[in-house]
Amino acid sequence: MTVSGWLTILLFVAVLCATAVPLGTYMAAVYSGRRTWLDPVLDPLEHIIYRALGVDAEGGQDWKGYARSLIFFSLVGWLMLYVLIRTQGLWNWTGLNTQSFHAMPANVAFNTVSSFITNTNWQYYSGETTVSYFSQMVGLAVQNFASAAVGMVVAVALIRAIASRSGTSLGNFYVDLVRTILRVLLPLSIVVAVLLMSQGVIQNFHAYVSVRGLTGLVQMIAQGPVASQEAIKELGTNGGGFFNVNSAHPFENPTAFSNFVEMLAVLLIPAALVFTFGRLVGSRRQGLAVFSTMMVLFLGAVVVAYVAESHGSPAQHAAGLHTAYRNGAGGNLEGKEQRFGIASSVLFNVVTTVTSCGAVNSALESYTGIGAAVPFANMSASETIFGGVGSGLYSILLYVLLAVFIGGLMVGRTPEYIGKKIEAREIKLVAIGLLLTPLAALFTTALATASRAGRASVDTAVTGSGPQGFSETFYAYLSQANNNGSAFAGYSGLVQPQPGNLGAHGITFADLTGGLSMLFARFTPILFVLAVAGALVSKRVAPVGLGTMRTDNATFVVLLIGIIVLVGALTFFPALLLGPLVQGLTGHLYG
Amino acid sequence: MRSLPKDLATAVLAMVVLTVICGVLYPLAITGIGQVAFHANADGQLVSVHGHLVGSRLIGQNFADPELRDGAPVLHAGQPVTTPDPRYFQTRPSGTTPADNAAATTFANLGPNSTVTLRAIQTNIAAYITLNGRYVPGGLTAGEVPVDAADTSASGIDPDISPANAEMQAYRIAAVRHLRLGTVRHLIRTYTGGRGLGVLGEPSVNVLELNLALDRISH
């Protein structure tokens, strides 16, 4: 551990708070239709789009109408992306398939498309050997915008339901979607992309460059329109790397400063949405309470992981390495880049696993047992620690309702949240909604561990020996069910004998199980959230009285943290024990 | 309730509009900005010497010579076997095939509690000591090998090494190139990037730039 490492963490938290508050205020204006500085340009454009789509911009939708539009939009997005990915070769006339890659196999395409539609961006494929610039830019990156916006509008619908005074309208899905993309995601993406290019992220359409190095060895260097995709990959908490090694690749993340920008881009919208929530429900203290809960859990995760990775791994110590920090190097640098070192690697990976981003700038598979237990724990908290854009906020709001209910039972008061009574119907929907994701994660992990087909994805000879093999499998299905997308990358679903997909085939079990799990764990909770919104929207607001349990003070924050930790621990502890914890606690070498 | 065809039509149109805006106009605009404002960066900071491309400042390179037997390169599993060129600073161990493959990056995925990892680290330490040990005053033990020289990088194409690693290799470079140690150390300091904003990341030495500078002052 170093002083500058701790300062990196402090600086990050400070800049995050300083940027999230104004963005939260701005988004509150966007979603309540108040004036913003982009109006003169975007108002006319939006009206043209609404007219083209045949959308009545003034007409609201109840929860069923909102859900129906969302499902149709996602379904059509899925089909279009699948066709585009599978017909990769047909688009060569655009000149954007410089390496003449063939389309990926059908089962891998199923997994990939489901992954990008659900904001997961789990990748069994490797970007620079599988996907053309065209597929990346016109296919995958478009879903980076669309799937992020879908998450955000669901959160907004839930906020409106809590804030609503009358009626059944949650807003209009297409209006919210278009405004999210044009007024939030696109402007921020342009800013982030320019910042990243200033640091050295590439943006071109050249064919891969062949160079003859100083000793005469030939090196082929991949190219591509990276910066535009990198920006939305972080901002939309998508996380799907342009290149196989994601944000560890110097062309995706060339400097420690670009790393800082990327981390900020990941957490910015999830953090800001909490302040948007506070503003829209008319009580900034309510937003602050939720934000405090997230921040406490986040800082805990960062500290544990930083200490663990600085200490080094059992394999390093057995080899006789001294892992104490010395002139630029120290700790567990296996699978980490020199320019980031321990602090910026650990912080990045905590940022991207508390959110549903799942980008990585270092190899999670090579983290120490305890260091890797942190991303496991982050995902076990089901996206409540900031979480994905939108999905983080609606997930933690479900936990808030649960906490209100349990708190109400404990003190014998009618459970109420911001004036809305929480009754049997809501709490049933909340409880089921919260259990769907863990169910998908544990069920698929069990299936993959117990079946020969599931074990085919584990390379027992190299990466997956001993408990690591279980960690790999568990991480794969936990990550996909939580729509996170980060990976213990030893777990494979695509066998690619050579770049370009000639002779490549997928591992059907891993591709299909993962794909179905992602779809299930994205869209069923969304339906439950919208149903909760539908139940809350028309409830009369009860005035705050002496009997009201407060949800904007430290006591409630502690209760909320307790419930999140308890639910996560009760659900996942046995599985965590078998994988990362046994490795982190024993220091034994396997294989 | 709206009709099914109308819902589908709206969804299709919305996807088409979004594809045009986010999938075509946006990346083209960013490409325009990048090519004009950050031209060298946008093209990957490629470096030419005497009109020939020799690499990218951002991409690690394997500074090694192919092993020859009877004039032909020796192959192992279809890849040429190479030995580190002692005249050049060496980059970090790479998990790609072949090493530093910038067209197919991959993590090494070596687990923390694995004997496979132990053997890989031991191999890297042994190679480092073989290359540098005899030049370092007092010899070199495993405990003195900088961690970044023993651990595989994440990308497999890490362009940087730690200052500790560069200082250790400086003895060899000075001896093999018949340079004063002070000269080599001065070059290392010149090509060491500090922490971002003074605190972010780690000080790192760009190996390609350092080796190019070495070639400019000696052969």
**Shape by Cα distribution of chain A:** globular
Termini gap of chain A = 30 Å
Number of strand elements of chain B: 11
Q: Would you list the SSEs of chain B in sequence order as H and E? A: HHEEEEEEEEHHEHHEEH
* Gyration radius of chain A, in Å: 23 Å
Low-confidence stretches of chain B: none
Question: Could you explain the architecture of this structure?
Answer:
The complex is a heterodimer of chains A (591) and B (219). Chain A has 591 residues and is mostly helical. In chain A, helix 9 runs antiparallel to helix 10, helix 10 (284-311) runs parallel beside helix 19 and helix 15 packs antiparallel against helix 18. Chain A has 19 helices and 6 strands. In chain A, a hairpin with a 5-residue loop joins strand 1 and strand 2. Chain A is globular and about 75 Å long. The model of chain A has no long low-confidence stretch (mean pLDDT 94). Chain A has a two-stranded antiparallel sheet with strand order 1-2. In chain A, 62% of the residues lie in helices and 3% in strands. In chain B, strands 9-11-10 form a 3-stranded antiparallel β-sheet. Chain B has a two-stranded antiparallel sheet with strand order 1-2. Chain B has a two-stranded antiparallel ribbon with strand order 3-8. Chain B has helices spanning 4-37, 39-42, 115-132, 147-150, 163-177, 181-190, 207-217, and strands at 46-49, 52-56, 64-66, 68-69, 72-73, 75-76, 79-80, 82-84, 160-161, 192-193, 204-206. The mean pLDDT of chain B is 95. The longest helix of chain B has 34 residues, at 4-37. In chain B, helix 5 packs across helix 6. Chain B is built from 7 helices and 11 strands. Chain B is 44% helix and 14% strand. Chain B has 219 residues and is an alpha+beta fold. In chain B, a hairpin with a 2-residue loop joins strand 4 and strand 5. Classes of the chains: A mainly alpha (591), B alpha+beta (219). The interface between A and B is large, with 143 and 116 residues.
